[in-house]
């Protein structure tokens, strides 16, 4: 590693990380995986630190995952949930955050439907900001937990071919994954109808496919995205029925991928919409392992941002 | 009341004048332009040695926010900003509260501007009642009340039938229809230019095509109607092609562009700073180059600021929730002079055409935009060597949502003279 040190103040997106930062987060997360299997699932690494979960979008899984991660590191955590609509009417985001910061937290984890909100916070906040998903922009901890899952399966996070299927246009998970895997030198295919997978995404280094069989061919990982049925209303595609026929993963399509390939999904899954029910529950599916890894990755992120590095983790 | 401006380099593209001359203004009108005018008996004398004397600048696209949104700007502060920026005349858009869709609002704006009295304010009234895009306003009455043009600016007239009727009806009034070209069914909830940057940064996009389909539609209607059609804040290379071809075919259409579209591109939005959020959005370098080229070949007739003041709190937010718009009255000349004229991209004479001659003609401002005996005593005097530094804290406008904060360069307004009175002095 040479002179490398992890010197990020915030986790705004994968875009801001170097490949070494990504390796460091994954290695740190690997060391945290075991903690969650213990009888006493707690280490003192963030003892005395305060983490605020500032969620402006409903998200039980990500919020819970950050909460458990913070608590297993012995941090104090408070949840601040607010709907965007009440925010728009009342207090500004700046005032909300300044009020919270008056209570001296160390880390603010923010989820917000407006892209760039975490970046905006860094222009005035004193805390470390962690992006837990901003609009259609990025969801860095999701891409990192996906990467950790792949690393556990393939023993490496390099030299892979990753296929991402679905609504790329509106997916922050897709963006963070494309950026991460391009940084690690992996091949990335993105697959969906042209209305949801614009050609311009090729400038991010991904290969665009509108035929799922071609797209998943020889992949190590097939990552399915949740289809938002309301997108049908925007005429991005005519119906779930037609979408399923062309872009759902089933055994026949999955057979195009490598024999060792795995299926991933950021959840929540729509059974028998984007993913065939039997595949979702098969031994090829790593969906639940992703959830488990979410805790280790978020522990790693919180620790690397604010942990006391002189104390041994264990 | 007399005012003598001595020793300035007088440049007036409409008369072809380009020489050092003195200008005498009496009772608000230009009395004499000649090499040496005796100083005897003249009340005020300005030595414009080393400076350029231009017919007064005209900004044909400004939002003054009054009545209704005086927290953003007032007629008074907007006029002060105009004077500071070298503008002797401004045309203000009708999206006030209430909308300027009836004669009493038009008359209020004019009477309030006369009370302030620094620069000329020419209201642009709404094309449709309430800017609702359904029924046309009482355009003849509004014109009698002082409206110099019609626009639903901020919104595009989405009904092709309504814009057709508005163009036809105003033929008898001889005032321009000013279109904000944006097909809202395409631009939708868009925040920024649609393309790689909007995709990567997860912001909803507005396709260039949203502008271009309206530009094309209006040109096709205008070809038959031959009214006065002006397309404002043009931002895409495709629109430029359409307008250039229309002009080549002899279709009567004019257009303006903003300094921010001439000088900035979409990469700036990657900071998520809402100061770069406006409609139309900042586009690509390809578009920017097309706009610059169009300034010189006559496709674009005017530079207009689209001065759109918002409060600090409104712009201090998540990108998506911030309102569209930037201010420009106090900076348009500085940035265009320094970055286009001084760089040799635009001649001084061409710049004056774009800032004065052409917008005065398009808005039908009689005896303005010209320096000759009998014309209004509206002049802008600028020093091409005087340095400027744009500072958000120093605007006389109420707002500070300016994307040029921190820019430095040369070329500053030293006097703005309206009707023979000094409206601004540096």
Describe this structure in words.
- The complex is a heterodimer of chains A (314) and B (426).
- Chain A has a 5-stranded parallel sheet with strand order 7-6-5-8-9. A 4-stranded parallel sheet of chain A has the order 2-1-3-4.
- Chain A contains 13 helices and 9 strands.
- The relative contact order of chain A is 0.16.
- With 314 residues, chain A is an alpha/beta fold.
- In chain A, α1 crosses α6, α1 packs across α13 and α6 (140-154) crosses α13.
- Chain A is 39% helix and 14% strand.
- The model of chain A has no long low-confidence stretch (mean pLDDT 92).
- Chain A has 2 domains: 14-138 and 291-306, 3-Layer(aba) Sandwich (Rossmann fold); 140-286, 3-Layer(aba) Sandwich (Rossmann fold), CATH 3.40.50.1370.
- By secondary structure, chain B is an alpha/beta fold.
- Chain B contains 13 helices and 18 strands.
- Chain B has helices at 75-84, 103-116, 139-145, 160-170, 184-187, 196-201, 208-225, 237-248, 259-263, 285-296, 312-315, 332-341, 348-362; strands at 2-12, 17-26, 29-34, 44-47, 52-55, 57-62, 87-92, 120-125, 149-151, 177-179, 192-193, 205-206, 229-231, 253-257, 302-303, 379-389, 408-418, 421-425.
- In chain B, strands 1, 2, 3, 4, 5, 16, 17 and 18 form an 8-stranded mixed sheet that branches. In chain B, strands 6-7-8-9-10-13-14-15 form an 8-stranded parallel sheet. Chain B has a two-stranded parallel ribbon with strand order 11-12.
- The radius of gyration of chain B is 20 Å and the shape is globular.
- The mean pLDDT of chain B is 97.
- At the A-B interface, α5 of A face α6 of B.
Describe the protein's topology:
The complex is a heterodimer of chains A (314) and B (426).
Chain A lengths: L18 H15 L16 E6 L4 H13 L3 E6 L2 H6 L3 H9 L5 E6 L4 H6 L5 E7 L5 H15 L6 E5 L6 H12 L3 E5 L15 E3 L2 H5 L4 E4 L4 H5 L6 H8 L3 H4 L7 E3 L12 H4 L6 H20 L8
Parallel strand pairs in A: 1-2, 1-3, 3-4, 5-6, 5-8, 6-7, 8-9
Chain B lengths: L1 E11 L4 E10 L2 E6 L9 E4 L4 E4 L1 E6 L12 H10 L2 E6 L10 H14 L3 E6 L13 H7 L3 E3 L8 H11 L6 E3 L4 H4 L4 E2 L2 H6 L3 E2 L1 H18 L3 E3 L5 H12 L4 E5 L1 H5 L21 H12 L5 E2 L8 H4 L16 H10 L6 H15 L16 E11 L18 E11 L2 E5 L1
Parallel strand pairs in B: 1-4, 1-5, 6-7, 7-8, 8-9, 9-10, 10-13, 11-12, 13-14, 14-15
Antiparallel strand pairs in B: 1-2, 2-3, 5-16, 16-17, 17-18
